[in-house]
Amino acid sequence: MKRLINLTPSKPARLVLGILPFALIILVYIFASDARLAENASDKLLPSFGQMGEAINSYALEASKRTGEYLFWGDTYSSLKRLLLGMGIAAFFGFSFGLLTGAIPGFYAPVAPLLTVISLVPPMALLPILFIVFGLDELSKVALIVIGVAPCIARDIQRCTLEIPQEQIIKAQTLGASSLQVLLRVYIPQLLPRLISSVRLTLGSGWLFLIAAEAIASTDGLGYRIFLVRRYLSMDVILPYVAWITLLAFIIDWLLLKTSQKCFSWHHQGVKK
User: Fold this and answer.
1) pLDDT of 124-153, one tens digit each?
2) Does a structural domain hold residue 4?
3) CB 136 within 8 A of CB 224
4) What's the rounded Cα separation, in Å, for the pair 267 and 96?
5) pTM for the complete prediction?
6) Nearest to 92 by CA among 37, 23, 142, 137
7) Which of 22, 102, 103, 233 has its CA 20 to 30 A from that of 136?
8) 82: closest CA among 152, 154, 143?
9) Do 169 and 186 contact (CB within 8 A), yes or no?
10) Which of 87, 83, 74, 85 has the alpha carbon at shortest distance from 225?
């Protein structure tokens, strides 16, 4: 008798099983929405897909009468610009500090404890300070993403650096490699795929910090728009915006995964799918 743990669905079965939860959620929503709208046609809590389509059509395909801009695409551009800039800077600093603290004992002693403490500080608690120090412009929003994400990436890279077998380091030094060459030839090639994994894992946090910053102090962006229309109970705008954010996050995560698989295929060998 086959054990459940050894049963592997076929590719068509995996596709069906992957789609099934989403289909069920959509069906439940349709039934619930129809039931509420049947009782009250002006109900705003669960708008129909038609109402959401009309609302997003006005945001994405019709220029704003006040600014002349297409609000949906303008919000998307502003949010993605902040997110990608913040995640890029966080990845750079996180990788650099994680590598140095993990590979160089003299750097580990003074910096690692500080890095641990910083990673435990709630980033949202620092948001008022960032607004005071950097103002309400782009810098404070990007800084919140960097402060919230970089320490997590750094600690993950530091752990992975310490896990690299010392035999590799000793062999490289035996062959005459300098400290810089060991970092460039031994550590970095093995840590780059882990960096991509760390960015993927912290991407959700990056979105959280971005939406929070835009909701509090911004004049554009996906988070700003969601919190702007909430005062009118405009669920026909909020729900599509949330779905769009989710789709963007999924696309970025997928692109990072494919980049890792393309550039570091050896890292993904033997991984269950």
Assistant:
1) 888 888 888 888 788 999 999 999 999 999
2) no
3) no
4) 21
5) 0.89
6) 142
7) 233
8) 143
9) yes
10) 74
